[in-house]
Amino acid sequence: MRLWFSMCLIVVTVSSCQISSEAIGPKAEPIAVSSAAVGAIAGDMAARLAEHLPPAATRLNMKSDGSEFAAALEAALKGWGYTMIAEQSSGSASAMKLEYGLEGTDGQLLVQLSTTTIALGRAYDASHAGAVPASPLSIMTRG
């Protein structure tokens, strides 16, 4: 009986210390970035991707979130010669999936592009006039 009571007391004590998953981690907030900075970042990242994935032989499937960065990135990739496939189209199964991220931290913007074979990341210092790289390009190959 004592053992059962002790176990119940331990379980109640430990379970009361749990917190909801909503309380963990920072909340994502929209990032205010000028159009010039967005264009500069998208152009630079598209150029770096073209160094590693040949545009003529690569079809990309990018799900757009409707943001200014998504539109600028898609335009920059098309400018480098990539064929962009809409997510719902019949050719989307054969296209390489491209995912992107743009996050602000410590006064800088962290940008990441990733496919099934490579992930690129870089930090930028952004202003109203544009953006300049604040770190070397981070390259991770997969497979």
Q: Your description of this structure?
A:
The structure is a single chain. By secondary structure, this protein is α/β, with parallel strands linked by helices. The chain has one domain (31-141). Helix content is 31%, strand content 29%. The protein contains 3 helices and 7 strands; from the N terminus they run H-H-E-H-E-E-E-E-E-E. It has helices spanning 2-15, 35-52, 68-79; strands at 59-62, 83-85, 96-105, 108-114, 118-127, 130-133, 138-141. Strands 1, 2, 3, 4, 5, 6 and 7 form a 7-stranded mixed beta sheet that branches. Strand 1 (59-62), helix 3 and strand 2 form a beta-alpha-beta unit.
Number of distinct beta strands = 7
> Percent of residues in beta strands?
25-35%
Indicate the structural class: alpha/beta
Which value, in Å, is the CA radius of gyration? Answer: 22 Å
Distance between the termini: 57 Å
Helix content: 25-40%
Main attributes?
143 residues, alpha/beta, seven-stranded mixed beta sheet, globular
Brief account:
With 143 residues, this protein is an alpha/beta fold. The chain has helices spanning 2-15, 35-52, 68-79; strands spanning 59-62, 83-85, 96-105, 108-114, 118-127, 130-133, 138-141.
Topology:
Blueprint: H1 2-15, H2 35-52, E1 59-62, H3 68-79, E2 83-85, E3 96-105, E4 108-114, E5 118-127, E6 130-133, E7 138-141
Parallel strand pairs: 1-2, 1-3
Antiparallel strand pairs: 3-4, 4-5, 5-6, 5-7
Helix pairs in contact: 2-3
